[in-house]
Structures are given as C-alpha cells and as structure tokens.
Amino acid sequence: MQLFPLVARIKRETIQAGGKNMFEYKFVRVELSSFRRQPKEDYQTVVHEHAKEGWRLVQIFAPSIGGDGIAKYFELIFEKPIS
C-alpha cells in the first residue's frame, strides 16, 4: 500500500552529525496547482502520515519564485534517527 500517491518526488539522504548520531532525511516535494497556487495535496496529511512512520518535520523549504512571482512547489524536510 502506497501512503503518498500524489507526492511527485521523494529524496532520501543519510547524514552523520556529531560523529555519533545518524539521521536519515527525506525531502518531499509538494507541487502547487498552476491556476490557484494551492497545494495539489493536503500537506497536513503528508506530515501526519510521515510522523506515524517516525519522521519529524524539520523545515518547509520554498524555492525561489518563478517568472510570475510565485513559487511552483515547496518541500517538506523530514528527519529520522537511524538506529
């Protein structure tokens, strides 16, 4: 069963911080509709579903704006400790 069918791109990275703790990071891109500039999916649901899997929301990143002055997407950045 796929929990996040509308997510366009998910990228994962593993980073060692402080020499001991290891974290895995997940970058989830949420596209905005081209007409109303509303998220194409419920980002709150995405956050809650990831939290159920042990991910913690670290940051919401909005890229530089397009030619029309509005961003086309934003990314939710999650982290989870690696055991």
Mind explaining what this structure looks like?
- This is DUF4177 domain-containing protein.
- InterPro entries: YjzH-like.
- Pfam families: DUF4177 (PF13783).
- This protein is mostly beta strands and 83 residues long.
- It has a domain of 35 residues.
- Helix content is 12%, strand content 41%.
- A four-stranded antiparallel sheet has the order 1-2-4-3, with helices on one face.
- The longest helix has 10 residues.
- It starts with 9 loop residues before the first strand and ends with a strand.
- 5% of the residues are buried.
Radius of gyration: 14 Å
**Biggest β-sheet strands, sense, barrel:** 4 strands, antiparallel
How many DSSP-defined strands? 4
Any idea what the shape is?
elongated
Which residues form runs of ≥5 with pLDDT under 50? 1-8
Write the layout of secondary structure elements.
Layout: E1 10-17, E2 21-31, H1 43-52, E3 56-61, E4 73-81
Can you describe this structure in just a few lines?
The protein is built from 1 helix and 4 strands; from the N terminus they run ββαββ. The protein is mainly β and 83 residues long.
Identify the notable features of this structure and list them briefly.
83 residues; mainly beta; four-stranded antiparallel β-sheet; 1 helix; 12% helix
